[in-house]
Design brief:
single chain, about 270 residues
Amino acid sequence: MTHPTRLGAPGDLCFAPMVRPLGRDERFSLLTDTSGGNAVRLRERALDAALIGMIEYARDSSDWRILPGAAAAGGPDTVVIHFRAGLHTIRTLAVHPAHATEIVLARILLAEEFDVAPAIVPAVEDLDGMLRKADAALLVGDAAFHEASRHPNRLDLAELWRDVTGFPLVHGVWCAREGGVGADEVRAIAAAAEEGAARRAEFAASPEVQIHLDAFLYAWDDDVRGGFAEFLRYAYYHGVLPDVPELHLFGADDEAPETESGPAGSVPPAV
């Protein structure tokens, strides 16, 4: 008997169009966890493929392959800093430790645009509790979306990233170990993302959610590839990564992966 391919993905609303169609496919079993948790299971071979963030990919990039046609990028109200006073006076930033990619993004953009390097304060409280512990709070995923209009002092990092780089922010990509999934599974995961993108209204419980989902890209195209590569370059120049990882892509099958180093893009200043 053939066992289903084991997939792991975050449960946030922004990923629903590319994840939920897979839950209806008997070829797959689906586990819901954070990007970091899924990356650990992928590394330990407890999963065959996982939807993970850019930093999780960078940490094991030589071992993993990005599945073509399956990424989530762009979209407002998904990575947001809420702050008590001015952005230039932020000295501490409360964050949930699970959001590694978004923490790095916040560090990069706060340094680049506001010349601040706040101390990171781990926190698992709600927004009010986080702001009692620090000058600012980083919210990610559903938490950011649900607090979008409640707190007046806010900075949308996905919008700022596009303003700074010209690229969409990549929230997650499907990855697998080399040889971990076959060509049929790769095509099915890409097809699910395409199907979900075309039917995203089915995942919207309100007009607000519909508007939110309509702002996302669910594909792997030149803009998404460029945004991914540019983030890795910024992470390197800000001392987060020891080098700039290459983007290793599955080709037509898992025996002949495509490799690319990303576009030249802009070169951020060294810090």
